[in-house]
């Protein structure tokens, strides 16, 4: 067997590159938008949980974790649970662990799994950003990420978001 028979066809490579560049463009757009919103509003919306959400939506827009409902329904309750746990016991690594664990339970009960929401809960448990954090930071950041993905779904031909239901 020659080396040429083991290579993917040129169209396969082109398709892989196009898909990769589309995902990269979506992530770049979402993170740039988060950065712009942070610069304008002063809210810490450019944070790792929200960048992770944008990456999930860029890499696997059709995955259950990327469903708009999963993203939108996971963050607020997970953030509220984390704020409550942190208010009771104070910020620490242990609080972050408890908040992340409680957020996983919350997401499963809501049938809205989105792993970056657990990262957000851990962040809250570690840093105690305050009781208003879910409203003034989490919700706007989630709306920015979802908005960027929805816009990319209309503008980028290879990016299908939200996924169509069959």
From TrEMBL:
**Keywords noted in UniProt:** Membrane, Transmembrane, Transmembrane helix
The UniProt record lists the keyword Membrane: yes
Span-the-membrane segments of this chain are 15-34, 46-66, 72-96, 108-126, 138-156
Organism whose genome encodes this protein: Micromonospora echinaurantiaca
Sequence ranges assigned to domain HPP transmembrane region in this UniProt record: 16-161
Descriptive protein name: HPP family protein
Q: Which Pfam family is an annotated match for this chain, by its short name?
A: TM_HPP
Q: Is Transport there in the keyword field?
A: no
Q: Which domain of life is it from?
A: Bacteria
């Amino acid at each position: 067997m020659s080396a040429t028979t083991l290579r993917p066809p040129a169209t396969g490579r082109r398709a892989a590159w196009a898909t990769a560049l589309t995902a990269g463009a979506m992530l770049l757009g979402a993170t740039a938008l988060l950065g712009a919103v942070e610069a304008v509003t002063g809210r810490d919306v450019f944070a790792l949980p929200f960048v992770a959400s944008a990456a999930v939506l860029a890499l696997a827009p059709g995955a259950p974790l990327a469903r708009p409902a999963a993203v939108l329904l996971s963050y607020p309750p997970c953030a509220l649970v984390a704020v409550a746990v942190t208010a009771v016991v104070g910020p620490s690594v242990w609080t972050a662990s408890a908040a992340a664990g409680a957020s996983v339970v919350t997401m499963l009960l809501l049938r809205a799994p989105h792993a970056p929401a657990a990262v957000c809960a851990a962040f809250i448990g570690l840093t105690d950003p305050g009781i208003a954090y879910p409203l003034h930071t989490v919700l706007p950041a989630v709306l920015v990420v979802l908005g960027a993905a929805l816009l990319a779904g209309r503008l980028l031909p290879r990016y299908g978001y939200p996924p169509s239901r069959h």
